[in-house]
Structure formats: C-alpha cells, structure tokens
Amino acid sequence: MKALLSSKPVLWFLFLFNLVVAVAAPFVVDGSQGVMTAVGMGVVSLGAGLSLLKGRGQGQDQGQRQAQRA
After folding, report:
1. 10 Å Cβ neighbour count for 38?
2. What value does the mean pLDDT take over residues 55-64?
3. Secondary structure string (H, E, C) spanning the chain
4. Within 13 Å, how many C-alpha atoms sit on residue 38's CB side?
5. What is the pTM of this model?
C-alpha cells in the first residue's frame, strides 16, 4: 500500500484533486463545515505536494550517484 501511495501518479492526483476541492469547498458548503473541509483537503494537498518535491530531490540525487559510478 505504501508503494502505491508514494507513486508519482497517485501523488499528483491527490495534490490536484484535493487542491481543487479545498478551493471550491467554501463556495459549495456553507459555514464552518465548508471552511473545515477546505482546511482538511488543503492539508492533504500540501502533504502530497511536499512528497512530490521530496521525491524530485531524491531522483536528482540518484541520477548524480549513477553518473559518478560510471
């Protein structure tokens, strides 16, 4: 399950879908429920975005290591 959740396509989906829902929630749902939905979805979106950035840095490190080995 961890390998599935950390794959790039899944992270991109989580990032974009939750970002759209976080932006739209206060306009669709009234009151504090809309705000809390936006906050919760925003946190998930930030987590997925940070994982994408973290994975991007690791991918560059691996490429540099392979270049050094050659």
Report:
1. 19
2. 65
3. CHHHHCCHHHHHHHHHHHHHHHHHHHHHCCHHHHHHHHHHHHHHHHHHHHHHHHHHHHHHHHHHHHHHHC
4. 13
5. 0.74
